[in-house]
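Co-fold these.
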Amino acid sequence: MSRPVLAAVLLSVLAVIGTLLLGRFGAYMMHAVAIAAIGALSLNLLTGFCGQINFAQAGLLGVGAYAAGLAGNAGWDLLALPVAGLAAVATAVLIGLPALRLRGLYFAIATLAAQFILEYLFKFAEPITHGVSGLLIKPMTVFGRPIQADQGYAIVAITLLLATFLVMHWLRRTDLGRSFLVVRENEVVAKGMGINVARTKMLAFMISGFFAGIAGGLIGFTARLAHPESFGMSLSVDYVAMIIVGGLGSMPGAVLGAGFITLLPEAIQRLGEIFHISDQLSALREMTFGLLIILFLIFEGRGLSAIGSRLVSARGWRTRQGGRAEPLELQKIKSSQGGLE
Amino acid sequence: MLMFTLQLLVAGIATGSVYALIALGIVLIYKCSGVVNFAQGAFVMLGAYLTYGLVKLGLPAYVALLGAMILMAGCGMASERLVLRPMMKAPLVAVMTVTLGMLILMKAVCLAIWGPDQLAFPRLFPDGAVDVFGIFVTYNYLAAFVLSICLSVGFLAFYQLTPIGLMQRCTADNPRAALAIGIHTSNQISLAWSMSAALAGIGGALLASLNGLSLGLADIGLVAFPVIVLGGLTSLTGALVAGLLLGVLQALTDGLLTPVAEQFLRTYTSIYSAGALQQVVPYALLVVVLLVRPEGIFGQRGTERL
Amino acid sequence: MALRARDVSIRFGGVLAVDNMSLDVEPHEIVGLIGPNGAGKTTFINCLSGAYVPQSGKATWKEADLLGRQPHELIRRGVVRTFQNVASLHDLTVLDVVKLGQAVRHGNPMRQLRDMLRSERARDAELIRTILQPLRLAEVAHQPIQSLSYGMRKAVDLARALAAQPQILLLDEPVAGLTAQEGAMMSRVIRDVRDRVGCAVVMVEHKMDVVNATCDRIVVMASGARIFEGSAAQVQSDPSVRRVYLGEP
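Predicted complex below.
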């Protein structure tokens, strides 16, 4: 087993143990972070690996939540989550068919439009979504047995997070994963090399959508409610912030970013209570969020993962992940001894 | 029926002209520095709040308006110098996100100072309306329209006819070449941002006089995007025309399409309300435009050479 | 198994970049395409490789239409090209790029599935042995192409093209930017590839000594049109060729 995989499995086991030991609030935090991490990994695939900016992530999560809620309420048990994933894939296809023909900026604006259209549909497709009152969702059932406790959801979320991480780790090392990276770097070169750019982007969108749907389904089950207000533009921005703060293109970064952004409001809440400024709490939270995004992007563009690897390499360890090579300085020495000489 | 439609048109043209003003700012920044400024909506909102604040301090309405415009120009320049300049070499997604960060920050600051509720915006224009062949045009609408059009046209004139405008156009067209012939491109970019923010600020004050003052003004910035895609991201005239078109489209949707749609829905489905259809229509239109003619009405298709 | 191009023309705005260009390439032959700067050589190759769509003309490969097709379709039919400017592709390694070159050959999902299940190491080893070794790139297989010299990056681009199992190779200035030594090496490599793989080669180039050493036949372009064709010796002594390169006598 390669090092990142081993690390991921170990961390998941630790997380599960931690969940069982922590109280209810700790378990709640754990599952909130795990679900956000699945959503962040999903967005990282599309935006970090394949370079397509997506502002419709909240809409896709919403589709997952509503789909899982409807399926779960109808008694589909474990199938509710895959159904949520597939519903989100279908939505991604609908968005992608027109939008993926567009480059960079225009694609981003198209996803912006898609996000608002989805929000509108959540509010007004009342027979399906129950509109502004929201869709009540019964607890998730596994083989007929409902999951009631936060601990239970945390364990489910952590397990699914591990699965998501492993799938993405594998994907990155396949030909498809490599084509994502080339498309991100330079679409023109990718096309010239013979990569079917349109199909590659669509596949990235679909796979990303599937995991967004799963995350959305989990959000629905844990909140027991799917509500249009919960899946608005600000949530999309949250997810973009997660992958940027974590480090664009880095999977551990996406998980770190998810943790950071999810726990931030809680931290502010505590600070506010300590300094007795509770009445301005939401303004303070937003201010910190905005300021953090700006400062992170200006000063540490490569996110938390870069800070992390700097700490790790400072201790003399070098990580060798599948396909990744050693520090560049070392290679420049080696490369002068190969090739056409 | 006709009168009703014409009345709608009046409202649409008035709001549309303000949209045009805001969109002009976005296109200006995009042409000059290649950045899509998602924070434009925040400039709109901030301009309105600053006007309100200055009036509250005792300044007469028009002085407050002018003062807000100047303050917004400063704000735009500060944003460019402090936030955008360090990000010059960053990838597109990072730059877009940093402007979103500014949007969030400015909204939060306004929330902290003025609170979440809607406020009564000071009267900028006299009450009453003008009767034009049976259609009532309120002084508010009239003033908003006239001011926006004057500012927009004035700005376009400045851009096309003055020496500084020429420098702006050079910088927008080819920053490297502009630098090579001695234009101080970074100053030009700062100028673009400050003008853009000033225009947005006035737009905000005008919108607040039409619709009331609240944090929701910031979301107008996002409505501007369908406008500029429709007009062509690189065309100033396009922004003007598309803004007007979109204002009219929204008004007509609200007045004509929504009742029809609701009638239809109520007859055939159990859905009662069509909701804020006029807010979604611009985005649906955006999708159509992107499909059919992504470069917009006035924009130009880009070519790449291998 | 031949390439036949007839009267291909492409215009960019007011500029006629390629003017009724015709070219025949027989199996196994190496054709050199030379001419002064701006002659339209690369533009012509771009038309043949699906990067540009010419306004007029006809071209066939193995009797099937060539113009206006997508690059990934053409690669599957065996028409593969290299690039003049080799892009730096972030942290992708030499082996990543070569594997991609191989992957685009097969759009067939069954083959892709089989590849995915096969051991990564076995596939790597085979690629290193068959493609990288002959190009002396085996030692740098796991290094990011970002860290390699320009000359080596061009070799990697050629490796990428070879991994796609070409039946005709369109090389865009393969020795531009290389030292004399590297150029001579590349020339030997190209002839070796033709002998081993059996593909035809069209080579756009400026350096006459490399062209002379490598090509069986040379076609000269100027101002978008073909002005001469012949062997190396014939090209050097033809007055019209001398005129476009050296100006009026």
